[in-house]
Amino acid sequence: MKSKRIKILIAVLLFLVGLVVFLVWENNAVVVTYYDYVNPKIPVEFDGFKIVQLSDLHNKDFHGSLEKRISEIAPDLIAVTGDLIDRRNTRIEVAANLLRHLVKMAPVYYVSGNHEQLSEKFDKLQQELKDLGVHILDQSYVELRKGGAGIGLMGIADPAARHVGGSYLWSDDSEYIRDSLQRLLQEAETEFNILLSHRPEQFRVYSSMEVDLVFCGHAHGGQVRIPFLGGLVAPNQGLFPKYTEGIHEAEGTTMVVSRGLGNSIIPQRLFNRPEVVVVTLSRE
């Protein structure tokens, strides 16, 4: 009888150790997801142009492994789609240390997420990013030039700061997104345009405005991914959200949604490893 209890205890301990190892792996083992994006509007000079997307770091420190993975990809551009920091426990030095390495690999373009917009340290973060050479794209349009050809890159500042008391989680900011995007498109002198915006739930606005390619984050992959059902919950989308990862297409617009890299209120990912997205532009 004593021997049986010992065996049961050992089995339980092994299960608990295995569970802890699995949960740590789920939160820390970065996966790289590759997509080919085809559009004949892409100038021949940008054929094969490689974009790395990072999103929702939330102060997470990968202790050099993330930089190594990105260096191996050899990107032409790095797009950061918000929430580098977590407003509840802001550690600007973690984001700054990562970007200090990334700007040496490729031009880095950044738009804010809700956590930056709601953080009292956002001004300090912006100054740090500028000092490092990061291009802050909030409410801005730039033309990327290569071999005499150009494509447009624009960004929308997250609308969270417009709301009081955290009400952004239930708000509909489609009018703000539409107005911002309309102003940016009026500036654009390029036929092919890319948008960086934190919010994937605004896909209908992006597609109605005929943006070619959009990069978003915010949804954390649904935090917990249920087989055959997808993500469990996402801010501004609620339960069983529609836009949590991958490629979405409508009316000539393609939206890429990153599952992100870190966590915020919910500290654990499940069947939803941290993700680096790589999109390669192609004419055909």
**Most strands sheet:** 6 strands, mixed
Strand content: 25-35%
The number of domains is: 1
**Outline type:** globular
Distance between the termini: 70 Å
Instruction: Briefly note the CATH topology name.
Output: Purple Acid Phosphatase, chain A, domain 2
Low-confidence stretches: none
What share of the residues lie within helices?
25-40%
* CATH homology-level superfamily: Metallo-dependent phosphatases
Q: What is the gyration radius calculated from CA atoms?
A: 20 Å
Characterization of this structure:
The chain is α/β, with parallel strands linked by helices and 284 residues long. The protein has one domain (32-282): Metallo-dependent phosphatases (Purple Acid Phosphatase, chain A, domain 2). Helix content is 29%, strand content 25%. It contains 7 helices and 16 strands. The chain has a 6-stranded mixed sheet with strand order 1-16-2-3-4-5, covered by helices on one side.
Quick rundown:
The protein is built from seven helices and 16 strands. The protein is α/β, with parallel strands linked by helices.
Structure characteristics:
284 residues; alpha/beta; Purple Acid Phosphatase, chain A, domain 2; six-stranded mixed sheet; 7 helices; 16 strands; globular
Strands, helices and their partners?
Elements: H1 2-28, E1 31-38, E2 50-54, H2 65-73, E3 77-81, H3 92-102, E4 108-111, H4 114-117, H5 122-132, E5 135-136, E6 140-146, E7 149-155, H6 174-187, E8 193-196, H7 203-208, E9 213-216, E10 225-226, E11 230-231, E12 233-234, E13 238-239, E14 246-250, E15 253-257, E16 275-282
Parallel strand pairs: 1-16, 2-3, 3-4, 4-5, 7-8, 8-9, 9-15
Antiparallel strand pairs: 2-16, 6-7, 10-11, 12-13, 14-15
Helix pairs in contact: 3-5
